[in-house]
# Entry
Amino acid sequence: MRSVAQEWIAPWADDARCDLVDDFTQHYPMVVLCRVIGVPPADIPRFVEAAHDLHLMAAVPMAPGFAEIDEALATLEAYVLDIVERRRVQPEADFLSGLVEAQALEGDLSQSELVGNVVNLLFAGAGTTRYQLASAVRAFLEQDLWERLAADPELVTPALEEAMRFYPVTQFVVRIPYEDVVIDDKLFPARRRIILNLVGASRDPEMFPEPDRFDLTRDNVARSRLPFGWGSHLCLGHALARANMREAVVELTSRFRDLEITGDLDLASPAAMLRGPEHLPLSFRPR
# Structure
């Protein structure tokens, strides 16, 4: 992760300015994920380009992006299928080879399910980390925490946990109860969709005292089950996402100082499932 971060920082490190999303967060988590999955390095750029359009599945409304989503899914499915077939012949030490082995041993995973799960990983892990990492940097600058994090990298982990509460990338999730559920005398019927407001939950004063204050000392943030879910919906990539963001922040804080946001924040639609900076223009000085 650190080497990938360094690779993507290098082209603009001496420029004194960048767009953190365009130049870094849009690429860095996807490249890491592709390497973990087993996408050959030479193929990662076109893989990332197709995967980027998957964030349209979180748009509200989704309909205007149907054509781009269909094209991206078809491209990725064909490409993953090709790599899967290559891994059957010549396994490597990557996630895809592990899936192929599990499919052969267990026999419960069809070819379309295998390919679909890999594509789903890309959707789940690309836009979320892209937005959340940019949102975390935004929070650290607004809260004047950059130099504290640079001086003490151990603070990066609690700072990221609080940033995920303060500026959560996932605005809401949809759930369908198997049976009737009653909460505070309100009936939620079985088989009816429920939209859970994660933004509201992240600012719940009963769970987080003084919720509008960014607090590095909160001891319940990591245990709040936000924003990575719980039970059968627990995000299986939460450890990867947390490590990805931590390594990026440690690298950025160790290399740059005097960061300032130099333009208006361009945030995704507040109605979308995923929200964060579409662009984050920064000026900075090297250490």
User: Anything to note?
Assistant: The chain has one domain: 2-167+232-282.
